[in-house]
Amino acid sequence: MSIANIKDSGNQGNNMPWQWKMLQGIQAIADATSTPLKCDDEVTVCGTTFTEGSLNTNITNGSVTVDGGTGTQRTPTFLRPAGTDGTVAAGTYSMSFASVGTANATVGGITLKPGETINFDAGAINNTLGAVSYVTSAPAGAELIIITLT
Question: Which band of pLDDT confidence, cut at 50, 70 and 90, is reported for residue 1?
Fold first, then answer.
């Protein structure tokens, strides 16, 4: 960015007020963050006040680290159906289907050709998926690898 956007390029000099405000904003941010935090300082982010030790925070030398914690451990399950039909029950956090047989399989009413893979993820924390049916009983040679996270 050139200061004042001289008339030999760009918007021919009419960008100066915007550039000046951006530079002032950057300077204000630098001024506000140049004072190191001490371990007994409080920091407010989006209306939430954090102190040393709250929500696994660590306030040292001008930086704030918020640890994700250990969270809830999820359990993976692996299935390899061939020649059968079934349903992955509702309540999983994610599921993946890989067609590894020599014939088409069906997942959720859609054909999954050999070599194709589809994945479902519930998205945000603690969202879960509904039930999804699968068919490997016909034609002969259909086989899936199914991985779920519960």
Answer: very low
Of 70, 89, 69, the C-alpha closest to 79 is 89
Provide CB contacts within 8 A for 143, sequence distance 6+.
80, 81, 82, 99, 100, 101, 102, 105, 136
Q: Where are the domains of the chain?
A: 1-34, 36-70, 76-149
CA distance 68 to 47: 19
CA 58 – CA 72 distance, rounded (Å): 22
Model pTM above 0.90: no
Q: What is the mean pLDDT of the chain?
A: 78
Query: Could you give the CA distance from residue 98 to residue 11 in angstroms, rounded to a whole number?
Result: 53
Residue 66 pLDDT exceeds 60: no
Residue 55 DSSP one-character state: G
Give the pairing of strands 110-112 and 105-107: antiparallel
Residue 144 and residue 134 in contact, taking contact as beta carbons nearer than 8 Å? yes
What dotted CATH number matches 76-149?
2.60.120.10
